[in-house]
Backbone:
């Protein structure tokens, strides 16, 4: 417990939650970080089980003038769930029920702590799934997906989270409960639901979510294409799209990624190739077969080596296993990694990839690229060893250079991981101060006091109410 | 290119025209002019810039002035077999249909039009240019103002320029019609583009490669027709998709979008209720983004 006011706050929370309000060193150790390299200092962690409890926690925070931070599984990569500004952490892990599957409306109501893959597993036998499939889907929460507007390999054809959320019950920063959006196609008034999705916990806590269900495709084909030159692979990506085809997924891995993944999962990836494309086509059988032919002929025009078409589900899963375990496999070459996320126009993939390699060389780091090539979403992984003195400075400097190169190529700051703390101070690369002031004006309508996940998304200068700025803890890198 | 340089002279000129004072409204094709009520009679009308400024077929994105008509947009995109399925009147403008935010009849497959918007530049109440979203097909940089602007009837700003996501024009499109249970039709098909129902007759749109379209059509006992029926224009409500099953509207002329829940026609049923809390949030946003109420006065997104 840091000080007296914390003790009183803790007592009040404990009175409501019992041992689900925690401030032990063990818990606090768990909640200072997310999937990024950023570190904050948690003070109190609450594990509510339902909306009324979340509401009470927020009320107590208001009484004590303390901010709060919603946290799902803590897999976010932009520091969104890293506590800065002394927030009370509201972890949704115990709000993990699938409340209702409403097939007639093709909707499921879920609590925010439901894990992404658990939902799709539950829906699978009913012939449906939840389309956003982040690579972290085994562990990330739907609440986190909503807050970050997360994507995934299959969002190329199906769209990111926002397209799959009909309504959200939210405990607003003033403690009131409301539902944004509804199950109709045109909810009355302005699209507050659309605004909330992607707001990274700065507009309140999502306590129930109505997600849209996507029918499982009747036919699926998965192809692995290998290229002797990464440039041909990247050019093939643009050419596939330009041929009028939108695959369900179109992922790329570079040489280093292929090598480490193959050593890790033995998926039969061609380790001699410079790059592979993992392409999935789904839908009705005719369209899928047509797609296979288009991909094949485009790839041939771009010096493809082998075209491997998975013959059955088992092979298909194996090919995907390689892709989905790529991040874990990086640990084979270095103990730590920093995963970046920018988007560039597809036509600029080759140019920016080359810059990424040069940047990594210049900062004496190893770059591994496994990414959602179909929508130009780069994910350079910088592998490093944190025990090397000064290495984090180099990692951050290289990261900044990658973001800069992406923006210069006509890209954006983030395709799916969000801004959080990590890219907050880069917002000015993409937006004018007036753009950001407008964004802040809107955020403020939800949270005039800046209580919900303070210090995230917008750089301090653009925020009208930066009452917590002085609390940024020493160790936090922002 | 610096942020400043990215803003074209056309947009600057439009911002100057909107200016910082006096009631103003943007006139598009005026095809849905009465939605939300007419603007006050003393309001100054401005016209958003038009023109398809860049279509990048391999990116499947298009940047155009908000005043561009849908027909112009689709003609340019069709040269590369692409489309933006906005499905509204050909003389409607891109900015106009986004400001109204009512999606077309192929929403069942293509989703609401707000999901097609990547970037919006608008002129705010102070006559200043605001950019939100980004030019790439995927982007989560900053708050999603684009979605907020779609359906805002211009109350938050005058849409000046947009970047939209394009889709390939499907190789084959068939409209079928006949007497059938629309819910059964829906359950038989994989991602149809549209299912319309007037209480007796259904119209179904199936798109894709020809062999799939034919195979899906063969699942239904319906006749091929030219296209969709004319939609009744008397009114429009949005219901939960499943409540169409119990829809009983006798006598009047209506057509419902199965799976979507929109009902077109003279129908005595409510919809679009806004809770007290949401209403106050929405009013607060209106006040913040247009403190003097100069943008589209008279029109209401949230009924008084
Ligand atoms: C190996 C790996 C692979 C990944 N792959 C992908 C990928 O393919 N695509 C992708 O998009 N992301 C990916 N991510 C990032 C991350 O998994 C996603 O952003 C995910 O949606 C975060 O969910 P979470 O439950 O872990 O959220 P957290 O990290 O706990 O929180 C993320 C943000 O959401 C807010 N939040 C959480 N719950 C709520 C709530 N109930 N109400 C309001 N705000 C809330 C938090 O305040 C925070 O700002 C990956 C991460 C890892 C580690």
Residues:
């Amino acid at each position: 417990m840091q000080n007296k006011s914390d003790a009183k706050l803790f007592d009040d929370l404990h009175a409501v939650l019992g041992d689900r309000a925690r401030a032990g060193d063990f818990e606090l150790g768990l909640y200072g970080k997310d999937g990024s390299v950023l570190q904050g200092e948690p003070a109190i962690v609450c594990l509510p089980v339902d909306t009324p409890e979340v509401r009470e926690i927020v009320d107590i925070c208001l009484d004590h003038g303390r901010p709060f931070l919603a946290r799902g599984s803590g897999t976010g990569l932009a520091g969104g769930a890293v506590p800065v500004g002394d927030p009370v952490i509201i972890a949704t892990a115990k709000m993990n029920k699938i409340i209702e599957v409403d097939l007639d409306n093709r909707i499921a109501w879920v609590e925010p702590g439901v894990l992404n893959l658990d939902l799709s597993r539950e829906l699978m036998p009913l012939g449906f799934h939840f389309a956003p499939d982040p690579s972290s889907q085994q562990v990330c929460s739907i609440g986190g997906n909503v807050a970050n507007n997360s994507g995934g390999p299959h969002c190329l054809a199906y769209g990111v989270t926002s397209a799959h959320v009909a309504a959200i019950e939210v405990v607003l920063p003033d403690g009131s409960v409301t539902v944004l959006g509804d199950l109709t196609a045109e909810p009355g008034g302005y699209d507050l639901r659309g605004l909330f999705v992607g707001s990274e916990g700065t507009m309140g806590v999502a306590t129930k979510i109505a997600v849209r269900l996507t029918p499982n495709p009747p036919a699926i084909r998965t192809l692995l294409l290998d290229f002797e030159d990464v440039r041909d692979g990247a050019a093939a990506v643009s050419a596939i799209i330009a041929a009028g085809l939108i695959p369900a997924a179109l992922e790329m891995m570079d040489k280093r990624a292929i090598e480490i993944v193959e050593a890790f999962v033995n998926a039969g990836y061609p380790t001699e190739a410079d790059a592979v494309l993992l392409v999935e086509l789904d839908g009705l059988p005719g369209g899928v077969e047509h797609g296979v032919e288009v991909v094949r002929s485009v790839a041939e025009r771009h010096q493809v080596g082998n075209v491997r078409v998975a013959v059955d589900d088992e092979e298909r899963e194996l090919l995907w296993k390689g892709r989905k375990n790529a991040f874990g496999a990086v640990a084979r070459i270095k103990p730590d990694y920093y995963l970046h996320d920018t988007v560039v126009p597809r036509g600029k993939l080759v140019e920016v990839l080359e810059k990424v390699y040069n940047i990594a060389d210049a900062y004496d780091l190893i770059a591994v690229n496994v990414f959602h090539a179909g929508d130009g979403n780069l994910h350079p992984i910088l592998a490093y060893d944190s025990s090397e003195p000064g290495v984090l400075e180099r990692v951050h400097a290289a990261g900044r250079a990658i973001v800069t190169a992406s923006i210069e190529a006509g890209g954006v700051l983030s395709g799916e991981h969000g801004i959080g703390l990590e890219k907050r101070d880069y917002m000015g690369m993409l937006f004018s101060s007036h753009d950001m002031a407008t964004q802040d004006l809107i955020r403020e309508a939800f949270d005039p006091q800046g209580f919900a996940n303070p210090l995230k998304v917008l750089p301090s200068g653009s925020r009208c109410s930066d009452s917590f700025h002085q609390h940024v803890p020493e160790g936090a890198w922002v | 290119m610096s942020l400043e340089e990215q803003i074209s002279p056309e947009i600057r000129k439009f911002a100057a025209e909107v200016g910082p004072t006096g009631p103003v409204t943007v006139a598009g094709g005026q095809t849905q002019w009465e939605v939300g009520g007419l603007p006050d009679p003393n309001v100054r009308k401005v016209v958003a810039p038009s023109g398809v400024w860049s279509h990048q077929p391999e990116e499947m994105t298009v940047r155009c002035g908000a005043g561009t008509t849908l027909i112009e947009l689709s003609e340019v995109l069709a040269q590369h077999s692409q489309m933006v399925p906005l499905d509204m009147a050909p003389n409607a403008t891109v900015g106009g249909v986004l400001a109204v935010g009512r999606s077309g009849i192929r929403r069942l497959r293509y989703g609401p039009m707000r999901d097609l918007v990547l970037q919006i530049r608008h002129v705010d109440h102070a006559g200043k240019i605001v950019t939100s979203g980004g030019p790439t097909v995927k982007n989560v940089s900053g708050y999603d103002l684009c979605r907020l602007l779609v359906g805002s009837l211009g109350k938050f700003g005058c849409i000046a320029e947009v970047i939209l996501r394009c889709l390939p024009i499907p190789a084959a499109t068939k409209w079928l019609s006949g007497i059938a249970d629309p819910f059964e039709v829906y359950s038989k098909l994989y991602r149809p583009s549209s299912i319309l129902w007037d209480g007796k007759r259904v119209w179904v749109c199936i798109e894709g490669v020809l062999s799939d379209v034919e195979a899906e059509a063969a699942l239904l006992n319906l006749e091929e027709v030219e296209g969709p029926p004319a939609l009744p224009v008397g009114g429009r409500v949005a219901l939960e998709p499943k409540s169409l099953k119990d829809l009983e509207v006798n006598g009047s002329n209506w057509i419902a979008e199965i799976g979507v829940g929109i009902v077109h026609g003279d129908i005595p049923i409510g919809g679009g209720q806004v809770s007290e809390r949401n209403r106050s949030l929405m009013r607060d946003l209106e006040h913040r983004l247009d403190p003097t109420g100069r943008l589209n006065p008279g029109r209401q997104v949230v009924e008084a």
